[in-house]
Each structure stands twice: as structure tokens, then as C-alpha cells.
Fold this sequence. Notes:
This protein is an alpha+beta fold. Helix content is 18%, strand content 41%. It is elongated, with a radius of gyration of 20 Å.
Amino acid sequence: MARFVYQLAEITGNYFKQIVMYSETHPSRVFKFCPKCGSPEFKITGPRSFRCSNCSFEFYVNSAAAVAALIFNAEGKMLFTRRAVDPDKGKLDLPGGFVDPMESAERAVKRELKEELGVEVISLKYFCSFPNEYKYSGLSVFTTDLAFLTEIDKISEITPMDDISAIEYIYPEELNMEELPSVSMKNIVHEVIQFRKNDKKQA
Ligand SMILES: [Zn+2]
């Protein structure tokens, strides 16, 4: 459970008191030692910054980029994947994953769809993004999830692989949001529903 933690930090010689709410898995609660010299004098100095007073190493918690593919079949139903692994094993997700270091978001969509569904991407169009807190291995990883409208080659030849047990086509408007545990994926699907509504109005 989240609880309030008082942090007393020294910044440019002045003391200030800061009230920050951190979950148990926030890096400020998980990281105990300097990753460079191993000293326990590795302290949080701001909402997302650490500093080691032993070796002066500074560390920032940044958002990691991740991608999600929005794929529609001929009926206008959207492709969802069933997760084969934890977290949220058995629940729905969108195809995609983390962007590798030094990889573009577009390249990441292409790689993930090859790995997860065994298909090639024909075209990609950026749609929207939402932030997320992804808890893995007892650590909160903050992400920026970028969604792309994605056309794929040979949609009928999709083969669930990697960390996916099955795929399902569902009208986004009919999706039970309880089945989609990720907050950012819920927001992305909500944005798709709004987009389709406006599309119908204009048609
Ligand atoms: Zn250090």
C-alpha cells in the first residue's frame, strides 16, 4: 500500500522538506546502494533523482519508451493478445513491448510483431501515447506507451508466440475493460473508441 514518506534532502546547502507519496516498488524505496561504488550513501535528492555522497554519482529515474500496435481486421474488430506470462497472466493486452536502447519506436513495433505474432508490418501511423507504471520484479518501471495504427501483411497467418497464448478480435466498444489490466492500454483503447465515434460522425 502506498504511504506518505517524508524526505529531507540537502540541495545547494539549503535544507527543504518535501512530502512525496511513493509506492513500495518506487525506485526510492527499492534502491539501497550506489550502483557505481556500492556505498549505502545513495540518497534520493528529488522526485526522480539520486546522488551518492561517497562517489558523487548521480542517477535519474526516466520514463522508458514502449510501443503498442493497434491492428483491425476486415470487420473493424481490434486485435488483443492473451498474456501467457506474469504480470497479469491470462489477461488481455495489446501487442508490443519495450523499445530497445538505440532502437526507434517504429522499429520496435516491427520487431515485436515479428516476435509475438510472426507477421510483417506494412505500414505504421503514430496514434497517441499514455504513461504507465509497470511493476516488475518488485520495481516500478515508468513507461511512455506509444500506440501506432498498424497494418500487417497476411493477418490470417498470425501465430501467437513468445509471451502470448492466444489472440482475440474484439470491437473496442464491446471490450470489458476489467480484462485489460494495464492503465495505459485502457486509455489507448478509450482514445480509439473516441476516434471511431468522430470518424462515424464525419462519414
Ligand atoms: Zn557511489
